Each structure stands twice: as C-alpha cells, then as structure tokens.
C-alpha cells in the first residue's frame, strides 16, 4: 500500500527489455535507506519488487501484464521516474490509499499555467469514468492528486508549486503518457453496487415464512 506522496525522483540507469517484459535498474538514494530484498517500491505509480540493490541503485522486474498495461514499457535510459516506498505501519498518511495497481494509461493533451498553478489536461479511457468526479482523488504516475475537472473523455488536475518541484509531472510534455490509478474506495463502492444490482431477487416471502412457522 502507498500514499501517493512521492519521496524521490529517480533516474533510469539501465533497461534490459525483452519482447513483453523488462528489467529496470534505477538510481536513487532516499528510498534505499532501509531497503531489503523483496520490498515494494512504486515506480511511476506501479508497485514493483526490489530484486537487487546497492546504496545507489536498485533493480526491479516488469512482468508482461505490467509491460502491456502501463507506461513503463516506454522508459529508457536517462528518464526520470517518481519513487515511493510502501507505506510503513507507523508512518503518517499524507495522500490517499494507493495500491500501485494501474487502471489505465492517459495521454497529456494540454498544459496551462495560471498564477502559481499548472493545469494539466489528460485524455483517459471511458471505462474509468465511473470512478472519476470533481474534487475526487486520483493517482497519476503515483502522485496523489485532486481532480480539478472531469468530462467524459478528459480530466484536469492542478499542480501546486511543491508538486511541480517534487514529481516528474510538470516536466512531461503534450503527448506523453501517465499511469492512472483511480480512487480505491470509489472502485469498491462501484463493485458492491453493481453486484447488488446483479443479485437475483429473493424467493423468501412473508407467506412462505408464515407457512413454515417462522413468522
């Protein structure tokens, strides 16, 4: 589990790519302070497992499903990435519940500065629409954000100066991809409501209960 509060910007040092998978070596410092083999680190919002590390870099494997369904397949040497360690049980919770499991990939369609804010427009898949609403939570490349505006095909977020400086989002250009994870609570609610609607009506009636002595 993650919070969506980016701890550090790392850099891709090496990419070993196969047809449908890859291995990434990433330079970092803060997220390696207490790292152990098997720990989870979110890389641009994707939960990955540390397979080896030194004091200056760590390695993770990207499986075929992750390779296909996230923007990690576009990474190359020298690119920056958002990094966050899994949330410690005794740590402060600063963002929102982020699982590190990506729901879709969006495309940046616009950027505009308004005073000290940076507005970024992102086109998203229509299947994510039920989980998005103005003022709701969303994680973009692992960054916990509040939705500023939502339409049927596009969403807008507003970056404060701190987020512009501490994440890679402000550096992204129009046409670049971002990993999208919708609010976990919204997904649970939508799932429960859909299952409730699909559940067949009960055959238990008052007459039936009275007939068998239960009422």
TrEMBL record:
Q: Which UniProt keywords apply?
A: Repeat, Riboflavin biosynthesis, Transferase
At the top of the EC hierarchy, this enzyme's class is: transferase
**Residue intervals of the Lumazine-binding domain:** 1-96, 97-193
Q: Which reaction does it catalyse?
A: 2 6,7-dimethyl-8-(1-D-ribityl)lumazine + H(+) = 5-amino-6-(D-ribitylamino)uracil + riboflavin
- Keyword rRNA-binding listed? The answer is no
- Pathway of this protein? Cofactor biosynthesis; riboflavin biosynthesis; riboflavin from 2-hydroxy-3-oxobutyl phosphate and 5-amino-6-(D-ribitylamino)uracil: step 2/2
Q: Where are the Lumazine-binding repeats?
A: 1-96, 97-193
This entry's Enzyme Commission designation comes to 2.5.1.9
Which branch of life, at top level? Bacteria
Pfam families (UniProt xref): Lum_binding (PF00677)
NCBIfam families attached here? Answer: PRK09289.1 (NF006767), PRK13020.1 (NF009566), ribE (TIGR00187)
Q: What job does the chain carry out?
A: Catalyzes the dismutation of two molecules of 6,7-dimethyl-8-ribityllumazine, resulting in the formation of riboflavin and 5-amino-6-(D-ribitylamino)uracil.
Q: What is this protein called?
A: Riboflavin synthase
Name the source organism.
Bacillus badius
